[in-house]
TrEMBL record:
Transmembrane segments: none annotated. Its cofactor is pyridoxal 5'-phosphate. It comes from Leptobacterium flavescens. This is Diaminopimelate decarboxylase. It catalyses: meso-2,6-diaminopimelate + H(+) = L-lysine + CO2. The lineage of its organism: Bacteria, Pseudomonadati, Bacteroidota, Flavobacteriia, Flavobacteriales. One of its GO terms (molecular function) is diaminopimelate decarboxylase activity.
Length: 409
């Protein structure tokens, strides 16, 4: 998409609005499959939590992707989008046994990450195959909130608890058909990832009925021009050879699975906002926009960097701005950013807004969540309406209480 396309979307659908470029999603999917083309059985399970719009899920289905889900609601979205149950893996954390059983009844692959639930599920349902999520105790992510393989993480069963895990499997006669790990997001050091993979291979040797090994994901994408990213081609070359060698040692061709989310959709997303006010203070020039962390929380939550472009004046003289939102507390998208000169009414574009952006939006300050648009083959398609006041109050129930009216003196 170019600046003219983005401006046309903003004019047609208003702002703020999320726009996703299907061509970029497809090219990222093909890039990853190409990197691992030497693996006979490769399965990419798109991480629904990154961007869960039904139209995006249908696009993934058309690419022959599977789905990685973390809630029964995501499972149901996947089924509604046309995915077969066997193409969905359920990898929750801290959910009830009841929710896991409900998902299992739908025919979805179950992935369990704690000993308590593993024992309960195996005792009640020994015939249902289960994948086990291990914690390799390897720190391979970026921000601490998105690094999930370290020793203090709540995710996964510690590799040091393997004797206990095996005892549960033997006592329940349950069938383990997969081993899974996820070290975290924004992986840069391939050697660290490969080191964690060796822990996964060692764990896998202890189970004889495996069908797949799931290496998680977390591949870093560039957030700005010249930014570093995961070299998936190098990783594909090294891990493919090691995986194929392991399959020979194991005596069976297994499936190599990944669960990419951000890698597939992040760069495809653009978030368009309108400038309400340009405010000069004694030390800063603020560009206040018609959005806030209710729509895009990642900069405030993670300190994430989203490149900001003035698509209304892309070739203008660059000046320094702090771009802020309209939420009634500190609400900063970017401080002292060099951006083409901004005027009130201009449309700004936040790049890398495809992953964990709309899905983490809220109605804070009683604001409406924005519309979503899919740009496909040169045309804009509305895939989610902008919320209205009716959406804001539709689930509220007015209690039948006669509150006393305070008399004014």
């Amino acid at each position: 998409m170019n600046n003219k396309d983005l401006l046309n979307v903003a004019r047609e659908f208003g702002s703020p609005v999320y726009v996703y470029d299907s061509e970029k999603i497809i090219s990222q999917y093909e890039r990853l499959t190409s990197a691992f083309k030497k693996v006979p059985n490769l399965k990419l399970n798109y991480a629904v939590k990154a961007l869960s719009n039904l139209s995006i899920l249908k696009l993934m289905n058309s690419l022959d992707s599977g789905l990685d889900t973390v809630s029964i609601q995501e499972v149901k979205l996947g089924l509604l989008a046309g995915f077969k149950p066997e193409d969905i893996i359920f990898t929750p954390n801290g959910v009830s046994l009841q929710e896991i059983e409900e998902v299992a009844a739908l025919g979805v692959q179950i992935n369990i990450d704690n000993l308590s639930i593993l024992e309960q599920f195996g005792t009640k349902h020994p015939d249902i195959p289960v994948c086990i999520r291990i914690n390799p105790h390897v720190m391979a992510g970026g921000n601490s909130n998105i690094s999930v393989g370290h020793i203090d993480s709540k995710f996964g069963i510690s590799v040091h608890q393997m004797p206990h895990l095996i005892r549960i499997v033997e006592n329940t006669n349950m069938r383990i058909n997969g081993i899974h790990m996820h070290t975290g997001s924004d992986i840069l050091d391939i050697e660290v990832f490969l080191y964690a993979s060796e822990i996964l291979f060692d764990t896998a040797k202890q189970f004889r009925d495996l069908e797949f090994l799931d290496f998680g994901s977390g591949f870093k994408v560039p957030y700005k021009e010249g930014d570093i990213q995961t070299n998936v081609e190098e990783l594909g070359k090294k891990l493919s050879k090691r995986f194929n060698d392991f399959c020979k040692e194991y005596g069976r061709e297994l499936t190599l699975a990944f669960e990419p989310g951000k890698f597939l959709v992040s760069e495809a997303g653009n978030f368009l906002v309108s400038v309400n006010v340009v405010k000069q203070t004694t030390s800063t020039v603020f560009a206040g926009v018609d959005s806030g962390f209710n729509h895009l929380i990642r900069p405030m939550l993670y300190g994430s960097n989203h490149q900001i472009v003035n698509v209304s004046n892309p070739k203008g003289r660059e000046r320094f701005y702090s771009v802020v939102g309209y939420i009634c507390e500190t609400d900063t998208f970017g401080s002292n950013r060099r951006i083409s000169e901004i005027s009130e009414g201009d449309i700004l574009c936040f790049k890398n807004a495809g992953a964990y952006c709309f899905t983490m939006s809220s109605n804070y300050n009683s604001r409406y969540r924005p519309a979503e648009v899919l740009w496909h083959e040169g045309q804009a398609h509305l895939i989610r309406k902008r919320e209205t006041f009716d959406d804001l109050i539709k689930n509220q129930v007015e209690a039948e209480i006669n509150f006393p009216v305070k008399e004014l003196v």
